[in-house]
């Protein structure tokens, strides 16, 4: 572990420390780490428009308690990491989504998922880590697939959570779920944004497992930490301009576990199955009743599955 890092205690949890890491490519990432640095490392890569706090503290702590050092971070353009200012032409998102669904190339985004995978590779380097385990959720799982294919020397094993390889003709996200994620809030004051976040949690989350009070507190915490809707759109464009990862999946030689919720309507389970089928020897686990989120109810099962996979 790089000893020159300036670590401070995290404002969110007693068992994590935070730091800023300059990648040297114009991007600074905000990072939190917890657990024993002597233990094997798990790097958590979050999804579209999601700050690192979407990795629940309880999930991180469960992995730490099972003998891992855990690192979570804000991707570029979100949370407390660098924002990317883009002066290019406005892109037609609907048209790009259509092309994307049929496997046609899109261009024009300020960056794509390959750039975001390079960020993660540079982060591993800057932290002075050797061979690590990764868990990528949703868009973070797409970044993890690229990372494992492009930088196999940095990766030990792979965990993927409710993700996709975006191969052509997979069933599209249900419209309600997709538009809740990329839609606009009714008003731009704090309450309007928080109500919008709550609607998103409800729409894409595991049916019957949303704790209204906790969800409100989370939404407020996220809003007060950082609110940057332009970054969410740019990350969505990054996905649309990256396209299918099927060819990359065929190059991955690492032990891979793909986990998906049976009630995921943002990325239906066939997306996870497609990833597991494309990566040689990958295992697939379907979690009954889980949607596109990580509610406390499923954390013991999830953290157990991933910890066991990385140990086996």
From TrEMBL:
Alphabetical GO biological process terms: glycerolipid catabolic process
One GO MF term: triacylglycerol lipase activity
Short name of any one Pfam family annotated for the protein: Abhydrolase_1
InterPro entries hit by this protein: AB_hydrolase (IPR050471), AB_hydrolase_1 (IPR000073), AB_hydrolase_fold (IPR029058)
Domain of life: Bacteria
Keywords: Hydrolase
Domain AB hydrolase-1: from-to ranges: 40-294
Name listed for the protein in its UniProt record: Alpha/beta hydrolase
């Amino acid at each position: 572990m790089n000893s020159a890092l300036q670590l401070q205690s995290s404002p969110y949890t007693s068992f994590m420390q935070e730091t800023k890491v300059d990648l040297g490519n114009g991007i600074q990432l905000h990072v939190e780490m917890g657990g024993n640095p002597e233990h094997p490392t798990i790097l958590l890569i979050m999804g579209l428009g999601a700050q690192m706090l979407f990795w629940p503290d309880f999930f991180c702590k469960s992995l730490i308690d099972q003998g891992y050092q855990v690192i979570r971070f804000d991707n570029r353009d979100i949370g407390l990491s660098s924002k990317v200012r883009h002066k290019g032409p406005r892109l037609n998102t609907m048209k790009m989504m259509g092309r994307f669904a049929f496997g046609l190339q899109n261009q024009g985004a300020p960056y794509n998922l390959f750039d975001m995978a390079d960020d993660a590779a540079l982060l591993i380097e800057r932290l002075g880590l050797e061979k690590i385990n990764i868990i990528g959720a949703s868009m973070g799982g797409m970044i993890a697939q690229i990372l494992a294919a492009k930088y196999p020397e940095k990766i030990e094993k792979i965990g993927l959570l409710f993700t996709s390889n975006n191969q052509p003709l997979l069933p599209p996200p249900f419209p309600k779920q997709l538009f809740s994620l990329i839609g606009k809030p009714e008003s731009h004051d704090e309450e309007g944004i928080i109500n919008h976040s709550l609607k998103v949690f409800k729409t894409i989350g595991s049916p019957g497992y949303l704790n209204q009070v906790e969800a409100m507190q989370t939404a407020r915490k996220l809003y007060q930490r950082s609110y940057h809707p332009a970054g969410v759109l740019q990350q969505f464009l990054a996905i649309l301009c990256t396209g299918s990862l099927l060819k990359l999946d065929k190059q991955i030689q690492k032990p891979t576990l793909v986990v998906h919720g049976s009630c995921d309507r943002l990325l239906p389970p066939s997306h996870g199955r497609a990833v597991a089928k494309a990566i040689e020897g990958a295992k697939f686990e379907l979690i009954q009743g889980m949607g596109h989120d990580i509610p406390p109810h499923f954390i013991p099962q999830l953290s157990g599955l991933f910890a066991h996979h990385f140990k086996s």
